[in-house]
Amino acid sequence: MSIHSRSRSRPASVIAYRRLPRAPSPTTAASSSSVIRRSSPTLTPVPDELEAHDLPVEGTLPPELDGRYLRNGPNPRPGEAAPPHWFLGRGMLHGVRLKEGRALWYRNRWVRSETSAANTAVLHHSGRLFALIENTPPVEIDDELGTIGTYDFGGRLTTAMTAHPKVDSETGELHFFGYGPRPPHLTYHRLDPAGNLVHSEPVAVPAATMMHDFAITRNHVVWLDLPVVFDRELVGRTLPYSWSDSYGVRLGVMPKSGGPVQWFDVEPGYVFHVGHASEDAAGRVVLTAVRWGREGFTADWPTLGVRDESPAHLHEWTLDPATGTVTERALDDRGVEFYAVGANEIIKYDATSGAARTDYLGAGWRAGEAVFVPGAEATGEDEGWLISIAGHTDPAVPARLLVHDATAVEKSPVATVTLPRRVPLGFHGTWVDAG
Ligand SMILES: [Fe+2]
Questions:
Q1: Radius of gyration for the chain, computed over Cα atoms and rounded to the nearest angstrom
Q2: How far is the CA of 212 from the centre of ligand 1 (A)?
Q3: Per the similarity annotation, which family is this (predicted)?
Q4: Which of 149, 151, 225, 230 is the right S-S partner for 208, CB 3.0 to 4.6 Å?
């Protein structure tokens, strides 16, 4: 399949988030996933693998959707010791095959790797499918979601690989990075369109920070060197990163081809996920991301996934390489994140106008990340489909695959596929086009 898969290019103005309800969660302090399982039915792992064919569809599946929606997330095996943090559970992939207006199959498979939980995201690039997690190299997956094994690009990749690589829609190259506690703490990598690792370059940073995401624009890479720092004292107890008041808070702009980084000091905050980045006519880099403040981050970090309300908000930074100055502003006061447990709305933000459209999914429903698939005949950049898996707080209610018209998110889904089982909420999905 071509590298220019339709799933590769998120259109510039479409950012689909999940919104969290205002009602407080009954769960407060909890630090083990066993507690998470008890208190958050939408996170409870499923105990087995299964597959089903010809799934029931309500509404009309767009016939042009020919491919697979794949989603990753933590799902410890039955009997396995509960990991100390939601982010640490073994990965499970859920997949739904759509073709000619039908939902041909659903299947779920654990990622079977001894060296990687590979629970965070799915990547399809240069004909290969990978399960990703940011502390190991990628794990290659076959078309039936079976595990092939760790993939190191012919021995060239010697670092971990972020779960949020970026495809350059103009060149077909894949930009990514690896970070970790051993120096170099940050390494920039680039794959050519054929999947060859053609560039690896250390980026100087003072220490290892938890760098979950980054951004690319037409000419630049944008680094998030933020104050959640490797904490040796936490090794073996939980995810060993904690907030630091002394580390500094910086965004960096670097040429995509490599070279020196221009750093910009910004207000204290942490970012898991970037929404959008671009360059304006004056050459300034404009970055939109979900920003966590110190208080919200430190309160939620140990029990992430439990609380029903996100303290993080959409935020914008404008970095001017010509003057070295930065401006920043809050864009919205709604609590949002990509992976939040309590999300019962899908929101589309227009990055240009700031307008938001939402679809409320109904009582008990919790939406997963919505993946944008451009329409076959799209002329506008938001024309296409948003695909997500929604779960219900009642474990007896099977999950649903939702397909929304991206231009009219506030309307009901154009199609709802009933899956043969409950699907725990997870992290990131992707669309792999069969075309
Ligand atoms: Fe993520």
A1: 20
A2: 6
A3: Belongs to the carotenoid oxygenase family.
A4: 230
CA of 314 to the centre of ligand 1 (A): 15
User: CB count, 10 Å around CB of 349?
Assistant: 24
d(CA 15, CA 38): 32
Q: Write out the E strands in 285-428.
A: 285-292, 313-320, 325-330, 336-337, 345-350, 356-360, 365-367, 371-374, 384-392, 400-405, 415-418
Q: 162 C-alpha vs ligand 1 centroid, how far in Å?
A: 9
Tokens describing residue 358 = 């939402």
For 219, other C-beta atoms within 10 Å of its C-beta total: 14
CA of 409 to the centre of ligand 1 (A): 22
- Could you tell me the pTM of the whole model? 0.88
Residues 6+ apart with CB under 8 A from 235: none
Lateral strand order in the sheet of 102-110 = 51-55, 102-110, 91-99, 67-74, 429-433
CA–CA separation, 410 vs 420, rounded Å? 26
Question: Is 14-433 assigned to CATH 2.130.10?
Answer: yes
Residue 417 vs residues 59, 102, 414: alpha-carbon distances, Å: 9, 9, 10
Distance CA 47, CA 434 (A): 30
Query: pLDDT tens-digit profile of 198-239?
Result: 999 999 999 999 999 999 999 999 999 999 999 999 998 889
Cα–Cα nearest to 15, from 392, 391, 416, 358 = 358
Distance from the alpha carbon of residue 85 to the mean position of ligand 1, in angstroms:
15
For 98-112, the pLDDT digits (tens) are: 999 999 999 999 999
Under the banding of pLDDT at 50, 70 and 90, the label for residue 80 is confident
Ligand 1 centroid to Cα of residue 369, in Å, is 10
- Residues 265-276 have pLDDT tens digits of 999 999 999 988
Written as one letter, the residue type at 430 is T
Helix (H) or strand (E) holding 199: strand 197-202
> Half-sphere exposure of 368 toward its Cβ, with a 13 Å CA cutoff?
32
Which residues, 6 or more positions from 153, have their beta carbon under 8 angstroms from its beta carbon?
191, 195, 196, 197
